[in-house]
Amino acid sequence: MDSVEPILSLRGIGKAFYGNRVLTDVSFDVAPGEIIGLVGENGAGKSTLMKILFAMPVIGETGGFEGSIVFNGKEVKFRNSFDALDVGIGMVHQEFSLIPGFTTTENILLNRESLHGSALIDIFGPRISTLDRLTMESRAQKAIAKLGVTLDPKMLIREMPVGHKQFTEIARELCRENVKLIVLDEPTAVLTESEAEVLLATLRLLAAEGIAIIFISHRLREIVELCDRVVVLRDGRKIEDFPAKGTSIKEIASLMVGRSMEAQAQIDAASEARLRQDGAQQAETILAIENLWVDMPGETVRNVSLQVKQGEILGIGGLAGQGKLGIPNGIMGLAPAGGSVTLRGKPVALNAPRAVLERNMAFVSEDRRGVGLLLDEGIDWNIAFTAMQVQDKFLKPLLGGLLQWRSDAAMADLAAEYIKLLEIKCTGPGQRAGNLSGGNQQKVCLAKAFALSPDVLFVSEPTRGIDIGAKHLVLDTLKKHNREYGTTIIMVSSELEELRSVCDRIAIVYEGRIEGILPHTARVEEFGILMAGADRDEPPLSLAEGSEQ
Amino acid sequence: MTHIKRLAADFGLPRIIITLYLLALFLAAPFVGVDLPASISDTMIRIGMNGIMVLALVPMIQSGCGLNFGLSLGVIAGLLGATISIEAGLIGAWGFIVAIFISQGFGAVFGYGYGKLLNRVKGGEMMIATYVGFSSVMIMSIAWLILPFKSPTMIWGYGGTGLRTTISVEGFWRHILDDFLVIQIGDNFKFPTGAVLVFILMSLLIWVFFHLKTGTAITAVGSNPTYARASGINIDRMRIVSVMMSTMLGALGILIFEQSFGFIQLYEGPLYMAFPAVAAILIGGAGVNKATLTNVFIGAALYQGILTMTPSIFNAVLKVDMSDVIRIIVSNGMILYALTRKSKVAK
Question: Which residue of chain A comes nearest to B290, CA vs CA?
Answer without folding.
Answer: A376
